[in-house]
Amino acid sequence: MSAPEASPQKKPGLLLAMIGPGLLVAATGVGAGDLATGAFTGAKLGVAVLWAVLLGALIKFVLNEGLARWQLATGTTVLEGTAKHFGRVTLCIFLGYLCVWSFFVGSALMSACGVAAHGLVAVLNPNADAEHNKVIFGIVHSAIALALVLIGGYRLFEKLMSVCIAVMFVIVVTTSIAVGPDWLAVAQGLVIPTIPQFDAGGVKWTVALMGGIGGTVTVLCYGYWIREEGRSGLDELKTCRIDLGTGYVMTALFGIGMVILGSQLDVDFSKKGATLVVELGNQLETSLGAAGPIARYAFLLGAWGAVFSSMLGVWQSVPYLFADCWSLIRETPQTDIERPRVSSESVMYRYSLYAIATVPAAGLFASFENVQLAYAVVGAAFMPILAVALIMLNGSSKRVGKEGRNTTLTTVFLIAIVVLFAWAGWSQMSEKIQKAREQATGTCDVWSLNRT
Questions:
Q1: How many angstroms from the chain centroid is the CA of residue 115?
Q2: Whether the Cβ atoms of residue 118 and residue 133 lie closer than 8 Å to each other
Q3: How confident is the model at residue 327 (pLDDT cuts 50, 70, 90)?
Q4: In angstroms, rounded to a whole number, what is the distance separating the alpha carbons of residues 111 and 35?
Q5: DSSP structure class, residue 265
Q6: Which long-range CB contacts under 8 A does 231-240 form with residues at least 24 apart?
Q7: Fewer CB within 10 Å: N-end or C-end of the chain?
Q8: What are the pLDDT digits (tens) for 376-421?
Q9: According to the 3-state scheme, what is the secondary structure of the chain?
Q10: Domains of the chain, residue spans
Q11: What is the Cα–Cα distance from 77 to 338, expressed in whole angstroms?
């Protein structure tokens, strides 16, 4: 009897290759959501909600590890597993959700890229029109990202993303340290779960922070990236865990840095949403003395790298989801026949890429802050749905084998994710009902007084 064939070994020193897809997850998830939502939340609630950044990163790690485990154990994507075990009607529902999500995330990314580019231009021309530049630069960045995805393929995409995440990580973390926050308050915010302004939007922004940190629907794209790297079989699970762990540690540190910056810099976000990046840079310049001008430009460059890498990642990966979902909905059920893998050369991939790079431009004319919040909240709604799917898919040894099945701890954590987001949703609904009642009561009182 011959010995089993050994799995291919990684060449020594190629750590970057091993953690490549994890860096892509971090670079894609860190961008419009983390930059804007982190800064806005820090300004509104302070560093007391830093625990939400850590929890958000941990939630994304658990979910993405479950996705990778399913794919390595079965050789199919989670969308394929959903179609097989829950029926194609669930994919129809997801496709509708994906269209809505793509519009909000595309608008948020275009808006964020436009604002970041305006920040760089404003260094040379302080009188530049922020709203006009946001629209123009947002559209230009989308066109550039579209061209890079079409021309460069996965390998160019991977190299560009590695550069962008290195730049944004070093600069944002360094500047957040340089502003000199109250480190005791930071430590307390990391370990003591509190939500300031609980009845005045605090829950909404905390959930948005958890939902935005590290991406939402884009976690599904990890499976397509590890296919590009040739990973298959549960022997690769350890590599994927290291890979994802590295990516989400970087994501958490970046999110913490943005919340700290938002809490320390005196910026009127409600009135200057379109000049968010410029205002943060100006405050850095003022607060850091002689090093201020360098810190300002470095921060603007890091912010631009964050949002553009996120745009590039979404433009490259989300069309995979559309193409995979559409082909699964349309195809005739097959048994024991390998379905052709989704390709970036497929017609549906190209159509989806063109759509996500153009249609969301309509959102550039909306409030920057409102677009960012809508994007984060809509994305957060995806988390409990994915958690339920992983409980069911990875909860059976018949589907994923004994080694691929959820551990008890993983199952408990996934259930906690569902409960957490259900509680947050109920809190938001109760808040809106209460406000509606107060408004109705106020209207009634005014009407009675007028009659008198």
A1: 18
A2: yes
A3: confident
A4: 12
A5: S
A6: 231/72, 232/72, 232/75, 233/7, 233/72, 234/69, 234/72, 234/73, 234/401, 234/403, 234/404, 235/7, 236/72, 237/68, 237/69, 237/72, 239/10, 239/18, 240/21, 240/65, 240/68, 240/69, 240/72
A7: N
A8: 566 666 778 888 989 999 988 888 888 889 999 999 999 988 887 7
A9: CCCCCCCCCCCCCCHHHHCHHHHHHHHHHCCHHHHHHHHHHHHHHHHHHHHHHHHHHHHHHHHHHHHHHHHHHHCCCHHHHHHHHHCHHHHHHHHHHHHHHHHHHHHHHHHHHHHHHHHHHHHHCCCCCHHHHHHHHHHHHHHHHHHHHHHHHHHHHHHHHHHHHHHHHHHHHHHHHHCCCCHHHHHHHHHCCCCCCHHHHHHHHHHHHHHHCCCCHHHHHHHHHHHHCCCCCHHHHHHHHHHHHHHHHHHHHHHHHHHHHHHHCCCCCCCCHHHHHHHHHHHHHHHCHHHHHHHHHHHHHHHHHHHHHHHHHHHHHHHHHHHHHHHHHHCCCCCCCCCCCCCCCCHHHHHHHHHHCCHHHHHHHCCHHHHHHHHHHHHHCHHHHHHHHHHHHCCCHHHHHHHHCCCHHHHHHHHHHHHHHHHHHHHHHHHHHHHHHHHHHHHHHHHHHHHC
A10: 23-412
A11: 12
A 10 A CB-CB count for 235 gives 13
Distance of CA 181 to the CA centre of its chain: 26
The answer to whether 167 and 249 are in contact (CB under 8 A) is: no
8 Å CB contact between 213 and 53: yes
Domain 23-412 - what CATH class?
Answer: mainly alpha
Alpha-carbon span 5 to 270, nearest angstrom: 61
Mean pLDDT of 258-262: 85
Report residue 378 as tokens: 């809509």
pTM: 0.79
CA angle 325, 383, 414 (to 5 degrees): 115
Range 53-63 average pLDDT:
89
Residues 123 and 337: their CA atoms lie apart, in Å, by: 58
Best CA proximity match to 274, nearest among 189, 357, 365, 337: 365
Q: What is the largest CA-CA distance in the chain?
A: 99
pLDDT of amino acid 184: 92
Q: How far apart are CA 26 and CA 172, in angstroms?
A: 14
